[in-house]
Amino acid sequence: MFGAALAAAAVLALPAAPAQAQADAGPEAYDAYLTDLVAASGVPGLSAVVVHGDETVFAAGYGADSHGDPVTEHTPMRVASLSKSFTAMAVMILVEEGAIDLDGTVAAQLPEFAMADPRAAEVTVRQLLDQTSGFADTTIDVVELEDATSLEDYVARLGDDALAADPGTDWAYCNANANVAARLVEVASGKPFADFMRERVFGPLGMDDSATRDEDVEPGLGSNSLFGLWIAREEAHGFLDDSGSGGIITSADDMGRWLATQNGHGTPLVGAAGLEAMHTPSAVQDYGMGWSVESDGTLAHSGNLMTYNAAQWIDPETGYGVAVMSTGAGLADVTWAAMEGLAAITAGEAPAEPGRDRQVIELVLAVVALAALGLGALGVARSRRWAERRAGRRAWATALRMVPLLVPAVLFAAYPAGVSFISGGRTVPWPQLFYFALPLTVTLMAAAVAGLAVAVARLVRLRSAVRSVGSAA
């Protein structure tokens, strides 16, 4: 039943047909689209910016933050993995100053870097930034790394880990790449990562709402959705302060300045050659340095924490850039859909009509969860009658009748491994599954509990019934 429900949800969540093309792209068009999208998605808070060249043509916020204050273009939010492009910029600034050798080995420039794999000595700085270092969640204990207290501590914890592939031969998305790169920035510059970013990136661009730690800029609480209800929550435990992989906190207004410089406009942080290097994919994957390189020449990247989502996009040819940030993380990423819609408007195309994918999927999951609990309660109530009918039957036949009840529990036990596999090898531990995937987690747990409850009730009743039959004989 659960599989059929998910299949139905997937069909209902197919993209809607494009709306009629708009004649003009302007602030009104962006605002109308986002107003509809926020209303349709129910996301608690969202902000967005659109730039063209060095000009911000649109910036606004929608909804409210965790304190009930209106979200504006200046509301600071966590942007998760969008941070990787910021870390790449920090590295490239030092590359242009001669303080870092982009194609030199990390070990030669960061002597504290060592792993339980001799191939780690061959990893270059470029390979860290384009995710071809051989680092992977499958061979690195990313759960242990979440307890790191600094970038220096983070790098030290890699000492007993290994690579998944020879450097430069394969691509794997792994946060360790950006965090080692951020530590290299500290060592090469002689400054804490937070100070370097403030002085060399945020400051020159006028990004006054931005920082690498929440003690400098308070982002407030993000939220998760459970069957349509958004719940404000603390971000999941993990290495965030000064994290090169996901620690940046910023606003839509600041992101406008960031997108402009990434497109070669506004205040330059590096030269044209530096930008081109960051935007050029590696030989093994269409991924540059913190940017996915799309087939049409545009670049994009998503950012997903447990309670925040974000997305950014630039078109170097037209000079347009888009960033969207949300205070809510759920089964459906509203920021990516919004980014695609805004990007379509910049091209004079019609965005897809905002859908209610999340609500439909979560409604289906809620129905499945309630049905599972209801059937479980019914099964427990009828367990005595079931046991009395089977007290004299063969044990193997009775055992076979119990197998279907245990399937949900087996699926639930394998749940983290399954999600990790679907995520392309990224490690998704149990605690994280109670955040962005909360509706699915609760549904699977309800089915597992219901099945186990019926199984236990039947076994207890069966044992009693067998004893009664034995006594009568």
TrEMBL record:
Signal peptide: 1-21
Domain Beta-lactamase-related span(s) in chain numbering: 31-331
Residue ranges crossing the lipid bilayer per the database entry: 363-381, 402-422, 434-457
SUPFAM superfamilies to which the protein is assigned, alphabetical: beta-lactamase/transpeptidase-like
Entry's Gene Ontology molecular function annotations: hydrolase activity
Listed InterPro entries: AmpC-like (IPR050491), Beta-lactam-related (IPR001466), Beta-lactam/transpept-like (IPR012338)
Keywords of the record: Hydrolase, Membrane, Signal, Transmembrane, Transmembrane helix
Superkingdom of the source species: Bacteria
Family matches, as Pfam families: Beta-lactamase (PF00144)
Protein name: Class A beta-lactamase-related serine hydrolase
Originating organism: Glycomyces terrestris
